[in-house]
Write a structure and sequence with these properties.
mainly beta, four-stranded antiparallel β-sheet, about 130 residues, about 50% strand, seven-stranded mixed β-sheet
């Protein structure tokens, strides 16, 4: 079992930045691909970013490319999402997930992730 706890959310003005953290416990995350997803009110959970086990490859939704950066520190068992140039449409609850078995092309698929955190709210005001 892997327990994931997100933190770092909050209220920020448009154009601002936030850094989300996802701290894992129970098992080392070095054997898991990790991803960030978000869910706005009344909408489905959407893919934001993902990173391979080694951290050598990252994937991003088109809507966040160039603004968000996913990274991981396996020694600290933590994954990060640096969010810059935030827009009101980035407002959502952000979730991190851990995937034990995943292949190229499926990192954006939520059903490939085995474990999820409880989420952290990000609100961007205009």
């Amino acid at each position: 079992q892997v327990q994931l706890v997100e933190s770092g959310g909050g209220l920020v003005q448009a154009g601002g930045s936030l850094r989300l953290s996802c701290a894992a416990s129970g098992r080392t995350i070095s054997t898991y691909a990790m991803g960030w997803f978000r869910q706005a009110p009344g909408k489905e959970r959407d893919f934001v970013a993902a990173i391979t086990r080694s951290g050598s490859t990252t994937y991003y939704a088109d809507s966040v490319k160039g603004r968000f950066t996913i990274s991981r520190d396996n020694a600290k068992n933590t994954v990060y999402l640096q969010m810059n140039s935030l827009k009101p449409e980035d407002t959502a609850v952000y979730y991190c997930g851990a995937a034990a078995a995943i292949y190229s092309g499926s990192y954006s698929m939520g059903n490939r992730y085995n474990y999820w955190g409880q989420g952290t709210q990000v609100t961007v005001s205009s």
